[in-house]
User: What shape does this take?
Amino acid sequence: MARHTTAASSHATLGLWLALAALVVVLDQLAKWLVVGHYPLGGGTRITAFFNIILAHNTGAAFSFLAGAGGWQRWLFTALAIAAAAFITWLLRAHAQQKLFSFALSLILGGAVGNVLDRIMHGYVVDFLDFHWRFLEPLFYRGHFPAFNLADSAITAGVACLILDELLRVRRGR
Assistant: This one.
């Protein structure tokens, strides 16, 4: 009986992690839908002295890597994201009881799926968060950090949580 309860608990926990990933996808796609419906490409609104909401299309990967590659990169990045999603789902199933690790993977999974949906539907990823500071001018045009979206934010937060999880695991092992 205890084995059945543990398996049921593990499946329920996996369901919660997948629900978190789905929530990230829904919030990301909703935000992108609102921005696409409100702004023309390149249009935007100044929110603060260092933050704008804009509409940008990214045919590449992070920091527009391979953006001008001619179109093949769309399918490469889509395939990589689908493979990563499958691997992450397998990891979630195997480690559903590890809370911080699974939280991190859920954020990464939701972000990856959110961006792959854009690539499949549009051929590019919709970006809309534009932060800019003068101290970034040596690195980025007019100090504007490359535009990003909620999926990118979830992936970044997930990676930060993975690093924290590993640091905590190493510390516990000492």
Observations:
- The beta strands are 44-48, 51-58, 125-131.
- Helices lie at 2-38, 72-94, 99-122, 150-173.
